[in-house]
Amino acid sequence: MIDREHPSFDVPADDVVIWRYMDLARFMSLLQTGSLWLARLDLLGDPHEGAFSYPTVQAREVWVDSFLALARSNGAVAGPGREEMLAQLGTRKSTSVSVNCWHMNPNESAAMWRIYQQEGRGVAVRSTVGRLDAALRNDEKQPLYLGKVEYINYATTFIPDRNVFDPIVRKRLSFEYEREVRLVTMSPPTYVANTKDPDGPPAWDWEAPVPPGVSVPVDLEILVDTVYIAPDTQDWFAQVVKNVVTTTDISCQVIRSSMDDSPLF
Question: Do residues 116 and 21 touch, judged by C-beta distance below 8 A?
């Protein structure tokens, strides 16, 4: 289940309808593995993912200086220097966080169909926030968060720098059409022996390799409300999708996109 108490996440109401648009290969993977794939943020293709806005960058140096001063006053073991910490914090925010993206909309979206399916060979899973939450079978050691994405002007809007997730739920205004809600998790840190203080606590290994994502088991019977077949799909493809679903224990409807409906006048 998701953690609904984290201050960085604006969790939609349970009855909010959400969609996951995908090609047939990803749909078959979902059915066969019974899990959602949360992709590492820096592998999504948008260099602004996890980035701070200009006003935040201006204020960040002051924040880091204060943080380091506080750490030293509390007797913390020496860690990365000021410039190194600034650079590493930005990197870790994109490599340590993984996301699974859904589209909020009571109806189908022509724009999302165009982007996430090719030549009438796409599929969309319709669900709700409540269904998604109830379907998650994550280990308690792997907390999951869910929140709406806020679309902002990165030149003028300050992004809070309270924790690792604040920039994760912001995107540029040009992506507003996505109406995105994100399932988010963070890969646990890798620790190594503290070479500067052998008797001290382990140190965070900033150079440790990070997996490309995280697979989270789900109950498909709960998650999937309806499967929609892309508009302009040929009959053979529609039948393939229906056949694939019948090989599972899911009792959901499989229907063609309403965008294929004939006009009434």
Answer: yes
Residue 121 has pLDDT above 90, yes or no: no
How many separate domains does the chain show? Answer: 1
Structure tokens at 143: 């907390």
Checking phi first, is residue 194 left (phi over 0); if not, alpha (psi -120 to 50) or beta?
beta
* pLDDT value of residue 59: 79
Q: Which class for 153: exposed (0-12), middle (13-18), buried (19 or more C-beta within 10 A)?
A: exposed
Question: Is 12 domain-assigned?
Answer: no
Tell me whether residue 8 is in a domain: no
Question: Tokens standing for 10?
Answer: 């604006």
Q: Which two tokens stand for residue 159?
A: 């992004």
The boundaries of the domain holding residue 153 are: 17-260
Kindly report whether the global pTM for this prediction surpasses the value 0.90.
no
Average pLDDT, the chain: 87
Is the residue at 3 inside a domain?
no
> Residue 2: inside a domain, yes or no?
no
Q: Distance between CA atoms of 164 and 188, rounded to whole angstroms? A: 13
Which tens digits make up the pLDDT trace of 130-163? 999 999 998 888 899 999 999 999 999 999 888 8
The dihedral of CA 45, 2, 9, 102: what is its sign? positive
Closest alpha carbon to 100 in 40, 42, 51: 40
Alpha carbons within 13 A on the beta-carbon side of 244 = 19
